[in-house]
Amino acid sequence: MIENFAPNLIRLRKQKELSQKELAKKLGISPQTISNIENQTAYPTFANLEKIAKFFKATPNQLFGTSSQIELENSVFETDDYVDKANLLLKAVNTFHNFSLDLEDYSTPEAYALETITKLDNLLKREPILDPETDEHLYRYIPTGILVRAEDKTEPETEYELAYGSSILEKAFDRIEEIEDLYQKAQYIVTTQDLLDKKS
């Protein structure tokens, strides 16, 4: 294994188009050390080995493996990459398929877009705040944010605006910490129950 290190280091260095001196500078070690390792007159210390591995982001195979082992590992990495890309493509196709099914329920794409926009608008819409006693709109005094009735306004109209409450989406965000807390508690209960079941 160790005999493969020198040719692998040379290969990795040349892939990055670095001279021995340039690599040594980047690693913070002497050029002579790099030369000795590549000429197989010395082996890397654990400290230098760690520096080399981190710099090249190399796997153990890429450092100590034979050419065939490295090629095999690269093939596996490429396969994993292809699988990830294929899964992403399948998700995109599935999303498009579902979108197409949704469109079938509408006479035109514009009708689908209109309903989607309407739904979003409903989530973002803020309802006026009403006086619980009179059911009339309340106004917000802009300088202080205090809510007042129409008959209680004492300043110029420009100092007031209709008061609106939070939208459905804003209310959901306002309670996000509460929801997260409930989720954590539920997770704790489930985990504890699993442990109790295993013990019994």
From TrEMBL:
<dbReference type="InterPro" id="IPR010982">
    <property type="entry name" value="Lambda_DNA-bd_dom_sf"/>
</dbReference>
<dbReference type="InterPro" id="IPR001387">
    <property type="entry name" value="Cro/C1-type_HTH"/>
</dbReference>
<dbReference type="Pfam" id="PF01381">
    <property type="entry name" value="HTH_3"/>
</dbReference>
<keyword id="KW-0238">DNA-binding</keyword>
<protein>
    <submittedName>
        <fullName>Cro/CI family transcriptional regulator</fullName>
    </submittedName>
</protein>
<dbReference type="GO" id="GO:0003677">
    <property type="term" value="F:DNA binding"/>
</dbReference>
<feature type="domain" description="HTH cro/C1-type">
    <location>
        <begin position="9"/>
        <end position="63"/>
    </location>
</feature>
